[in-house]
Structure formats: structure tokens, C-alpha cells
Specification:
This protein has helices at 3-24, 37-59, 63-87, 96-119. By secondary structure, the chain is mainly α. It is globular, with a radius of gyration of 16 Å.
């Protein structure tokens, strides 16, 4: 697992535990849209599950555990970035900070995934039949 990916995954674990825990505790305005307390709790458990998945990759820092999460990130980011950016002009003031944070994380994780999956010569996805790094 490359050093930047490892540090980023550690950051994601901390952020997901904080946001997920707050949602499970029914803290309002964590997500950049309005949700019922029940949906917030369910979303919080999803965040905590994602934190466990990133923790697994940190404990077993192989490229296979990194690449899968980066690919998932990229798909998630590509789907969500446009709707999040479209919300900027109409977002309620109490949800603005959550939206800004969410957009920052989506942009960062998307760039991280693009770099390691497509640009970095040591980790980029290769043509069929190529061997991926063993680390």
C-alpha cells in the first residue's frame, strides 16, 4: 500500500468513525441533506462499516485491498460529485458546512483513486494479463 494511500485511509477511518458515530447518536446536519433520525442512524452504521473496511486494508496493506477500495471510491465519487455541486446554490445555511466537507472528501478521494489507478506507473491498472504489484 503506497504511503499516501495509507495515510488517506487512516484519515478516512477517523472521519467515518466521527461522522458515523454522530449519525448513530442522531446528531443533526451531519449529512448535507435532511434525513429522518432513523435514516441518519442507518447511514451512520453504513459509515461505521466503511470505517471497518478501510481498517482492514490498513491492517492488511496489500495492493489488492487498496485497489478495490479506490475503484469503489472512484465510482461513488463520479456518481455524486455533480449532484453535490448542483446543490451549492440552494443549500440551506445549516447544511453548508456538511456539503463543503462532503465535496472536499469526494474530490480528494476521486483524485487519489485516479492517481493510483490510472497515473502512478507502479500501481496503475494495466492491460489484461498484466501482473499487479504484490505489496
Amino acid at each position: 500500500m503506497p504511503t499516501l494511500a495509507r495515510a488517506s485511509f487512516a484519515f478516512f477511518v477517523i472521519a467515518l468513525i466521527i461522522a458515523g458515530g454522530a449519525l448513530v447518536l442522531k446528531t443533526p446536519n451531519i449529512l448535507p441533506w435532511r434525513v429522518t433520525p432513523e435514516l441518519g442512524v442507518m447511514s451512520g452504521w453504513f459509515f461505521l462499516g466503511a470505517a471497518a473496511y478501510f481498517t482492514y486494508a490498513l491492517l492488511r496493506p496489500a495492493w489488492a485491498n487498496t485497489a478495490g477500495q479506490l475503484a469503489g471510491f472512484l465510482a461513488y465519487d463520479l456518481i455524486l460529485i455533480v449532484p453535490f455541486l448542483q446543490r451549492l446554490p440552494t443549500i440551506a445555511p445549516e447544511l453548508q458546512i456538511s456539503l463543503y466537507i462532503y465535496i472536499a472528501v469526494v474530490v480528494y478521494s476521486g483524485l487519489l483513486a485516479l492517481y493510483y489507478l490510472f497515473l502512478n506507473p507502479a500501481t496503475r491498472i494495466r492491460r489484461a494479463g498484466a501482473v499487479m504489484p504484490a505489496t
